[in-house]
């Protein structure tokens, strides 16, 4: 009975299963038919059906490839977005952050002054009233001023002051806008034209600040991957410009033309087969460190030979080097157009302000939108531009009134300083900034040299002569010299700024005072 | 002054990492230095950002339709050839634009993008962004269309498939910043500047 029951139960289960299976299949077919009907209702479904039917074409391999492609596309479309930028920070918990903040003791933004620096700050002479050959100090004394770059003694000239005041009345103090944005006035265009004509260039552009001129000019043209070959004694402004340019920089030994050619040859060799890049040679005309003159003749020859562009910084030579003050190109009897970019200052001999860059029309035009200091700085005050134009006019009319007496005074100083063997004049007889180094029997350390030059400056001031010395820009603490630091580390020297405002007698007297100060300080060490 | 002194890691030279091992033909662009990164973000990247602008997607179907119409108007060109030519032209143009040309035509970033092609510049190098998805699906769609209308002829299929692969493979995330060095390619080894004196 029991077994019979079991048998009948199992039979009914099979029957049930069979029935369910058939029903299930029937259900599936119904659903499929339903799906197909629904699918046909979707617009465009006929195209898809036809496409799939046609695409198979008894070619399973090709169909598989296409199917893979479609699967890839769907996967690609559904993948979530992610960043490939590597995050270089560690995720910290809140308590860790608090702990770090508690531990952190900020370093001073500026290191405390050393004793020597403090002394220099205290001793800095303060001039009251206008500058000139003789200046009045804040302590009431009147001293001979050999520390201002007032080479033609035009700083206090009444005619220039009057024209400046007249401009001030018409144009106001400053244009208060960048040159490309309402800052350009007719006097700027006149001044640019005057400078270009004076130098014999196609065009000229004025910058509002002398230091930032070269900083704008070099990065406007040189970019990553470009080559810049530079003299290794270039001044601080040029070094900053080179750094900003992001270019590949090669140095040649100071004024060593054989080394320059060697560097140019090396670049030529290693850049073969590479994309052509822009190439520049950068040099100062009259070097700030040392005061010697660049060998422009050879540099221009090499630049044409190796197809480079030449950027010449005439900051320390424009206006007084050359027979009529047109700078180094005049001295070497070269047309100014041989140099691609001549950069100079209008703040020294021209008693105005700002700087300029002369070159071809294209070179100047490019800077009007790419020279950062031109685009983003307010334009030069109008009265400075008219003053520069006036000085250029005076220089063009009778250059001998300015250049000849300046040369005479430089000569007087050179002759007077040659009387002692305790110093060596390093600057060229063309340079109105006479710089000399000290001759000590024993090699002096950098700190000792700074100490001695400072003592000489103090001694001269005590005897009524104001001179300056070369100062270095100290290496920031914790920074190694090299990779990312372009510094300014000139030789320890005394700098005498000669002016036409002195008679021969005054020059000799001042030179005598300087000489005796040198004898006293260096002699003490010997 | 050091003659051939230590490589400078400042702005001037690209980092020492940008130097190919002589034996390897695959080269992966190293990450940017701090200076390069700051130059990259100095101004918006106008070269790559336009792909996210309004209408930038629409121009692709328009261009494809234009190409198709252009090839159809040439007498003697069959439908098969016309589709294949449209496909090849589109693939070639996008390869040139997204994968071949490196850098930026504008000088806003001091050359900080010089080593990256447009695909790598897009969306700051992020993967699977909407624009990248669109620009990847476009050639796939065009390929499927062109194989369909070439009636699955094997020759046309192979030609179209190769054209498609030339634009799909460089788009893959695993090929990001990767270069295959061919005998005729320019040397990747970077020239180095020198320390200041």
Automatic annotation (TrEMBL), chain A:
The record, for InterPro entries, names: Aminotransferase_I/II_large (IPR004839), AON_synthase_class-II (IPR050087), PyrdxlP-dep_Trfase (IPR015424), PyrdxlP-dep_Trfase_major (IPR015421), PyrdxlP-dep_Trfase_small (IPR015422)
The chain positions of domain Aminotransferase class I/classII large read 142-478
What Gene3D superfamilies does UniProt report for this protein, alphabetically?
A: Aspartate Aminotransferase, domain 1, Type I PLP-dependent aspartate aminotransferase-like (Major domain)
Sorted UniProt keywords: Acyltransferase, Lipid metabolism, Pyridoxal phosphate, Sphingolipid metabolism, Transferase
Which GO cellular component terms, listed alphabetically, does the Swiss-Prot or TrEMBL entry include?
endoplasmic reticulum; membrane
Q: In which pathway does it act?
A: Sphingolipid metabolism; Lipid metabolism; sphingolipid metabolism
One GO BP on record is: ceramide biosynthetic process
Determine if RNA-binding is one of this entry's keywords.
Answer: no
Q: How far does the signal peptide extend, from start to end residue?
A: none
* Cofactors named for this entry: pyridoxal 5'-phosphate
> EC number(s) for this protein?
2.3.1.50
Question: Which Gene Ontology MF annotations are present?
Answer: pyridoxal phosphate binding; serine C-palmitoyltransferase activity
Q: Which Pfam families match?
A: Aminotran_1_2
Recorded family membership:
Belongs to the class-II pyridoxal-phosphate-dependent aminotransferase family.
Can you say what this protein is called?
A: serine C-palmitoyltransferase
Q: Which organism is it from?
A: Orbilia brochopaga
The top of its lineage is: Eukaryota, Fungi, Dikarya, Ascomycota, Pezizomycotina
The gene coding this protein? LCB1
TrEMBL record, chain B:
Instruction: Supply the InterPro entries for this chain.
Output: ORMDL (IPR007203)
Q: Name one GO cellular component term.
A: endoplasmic reticulum membrane
Q: Classify the protein's membrane topology as the record does.
A: Multi-pass membrane protein
Region entry Disordered, spans: 1-22
Q: Which Pfam families does the annotation name?
A: ORMDL (PF04061)
Q: Where in the cell is it found?
A: Membrane
Keywords, A to Z, come to: Membrane, Transmembrane, Transmembrane helix
Q: What name does UniProt use for this protein?
A: Protein ORM1
Q: What species does this protein belong to? A: Orbilia brochopaga
């Amino acid at each position: 009975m029991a077994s019979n029951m079991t048998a009948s139960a199992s039979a009914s289960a099979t029957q049930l299963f069979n029935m369910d299976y058939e029903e299930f299949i029937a259900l599936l077919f119904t659903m499929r038919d339903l799906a197909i009907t629904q699918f046909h209702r979707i617009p465009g479904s006929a195209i898809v059906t036809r496409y799939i039917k046609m695409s198979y074409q008894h070619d399973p391999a090709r169909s598989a490839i296409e199917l893979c492609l479609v699967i890839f596309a769907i996967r690609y479309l559904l993948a979530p977005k992610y960043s490939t930028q590597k995050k270089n920070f560690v995720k910290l918990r809140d308590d860790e952050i608090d702990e770090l903040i508690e531990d952190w003791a900020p370093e001073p933004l500026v290191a405390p002054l050393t004793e020597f620096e403090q002394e220099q700050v205290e001793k800095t002479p303060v001039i009251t009233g206008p500058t000139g050959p003789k200046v009045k100090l804040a302590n009431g004394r009147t001293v001979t001023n050999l520390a201002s770059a007032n080479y033609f003694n035009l700083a206090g000239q009444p005619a220039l002051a009057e024209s400046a005041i007249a401009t001030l009345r018409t144009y106001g103090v400053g244009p208060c806008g960048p040159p490309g944005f309402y800052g350009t006035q007719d006097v700027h265009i006149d001044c640019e034209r005057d400078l270009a004509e004076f130098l014999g260039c196609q065009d000229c552009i004025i910058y509002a600040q002398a230091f930032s001129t070269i900083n704008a000019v070099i990065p406007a043209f040189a970019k990553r991957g470009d080559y810049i070959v530079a003299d290794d004694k270039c001044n601080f402004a040029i070094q900053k410009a080179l750094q900003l340019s992001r270019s590949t920089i090669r140095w040649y030994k100071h004024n060593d033309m054989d080394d320059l050619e060697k560097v140019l040859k090396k670049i030529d060799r290693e850049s073969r087969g590479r994309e052509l890049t822009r190439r520049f040679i950068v040099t100062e005309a009259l070097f700030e460190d040392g005061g010697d003159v660049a060998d422009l003749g050879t540099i221009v020859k090499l630049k044409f030979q190796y197809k480079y562009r030449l950027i010449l910084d005439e900051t320390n030579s424009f206006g007084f080097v050359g027979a009529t003050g047109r700078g180094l190109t005049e001295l070497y009897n070269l047309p100014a157009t041989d140099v691609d970019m001549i950069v100079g200052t209008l703040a020294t001999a021209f008693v105005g302000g700002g700087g300029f860059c002369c070159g071809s029309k294209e070179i100047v035009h490019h800077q009007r939108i790419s020279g950062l200091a031109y685009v983003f700085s307010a334009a030069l005050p109008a009265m400075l531009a008219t003053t520069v134009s006036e000085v250029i006019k005076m220089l063009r009319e009778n250059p001998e009134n300015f250049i000849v007496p300046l040369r005479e005074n430089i000569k007087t100083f050179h002759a007077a300083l040659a009387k002692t063997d305790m110093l060596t004049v390093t600057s060229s007889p063309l340079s109105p900034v006479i710089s000399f180094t000290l001759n000590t029997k024993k090699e002096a350390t950098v700190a000792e040299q700074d100490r001695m030059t400072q003592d000489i400056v103090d001694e001269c001031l005590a005897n009524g002569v104001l001179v300056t010395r070369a100062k270095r820009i100290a290496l920031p603490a914790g920074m190694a010299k090299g990779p990312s630091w372009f510094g300014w580390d000139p030789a320890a020297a005394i700098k005498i700024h000669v002016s036409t405002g002195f008679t021969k007698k005054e020059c000799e007297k001042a030179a005598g005072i300087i000489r005796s100060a040198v004898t006293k300080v260096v002699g003490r060490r010997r | 002054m050091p003659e051939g002194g230590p490589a400078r890691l400042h702005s001037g030279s690209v980092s020492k990492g940008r130097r190919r091992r002589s034996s390897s033909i695959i080269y992966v662009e190293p990450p940017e230095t701090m200076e390069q990164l700051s130059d990259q973000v100095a101004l918006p990247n106008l070269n790559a950002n336009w792909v996210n602008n309004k209408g930038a997607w629409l121009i692709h179907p328009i261009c494809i339709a234009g190409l198709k119409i252009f090839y159809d108007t040439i007498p003697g060109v069959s439908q098969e050839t016309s589709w294949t030519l449209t496909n090849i032209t589109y693939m070639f143009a996008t390869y040139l634009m997204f994968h071949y040309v490196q850098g930026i035509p504008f000088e806003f970033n001091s050359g900080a993008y010089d080593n990256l092609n447009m695909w790598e510049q897009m969306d700051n190098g992020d993967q699977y962004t909407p624009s990248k998805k669109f620009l990847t699906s476009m050639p796939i769609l065009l390929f499927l269309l062109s194989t369909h209308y070439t009636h699955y002829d094997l020759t046309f299929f192979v030609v179209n498939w190769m054209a498609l692969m030339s634009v799909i493979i460089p788009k893959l995330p695993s090929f990001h910043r990767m270069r295959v060095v061919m005998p005729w390619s320019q040397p990747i080894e970077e020239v180095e500047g020198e320390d200041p004196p």
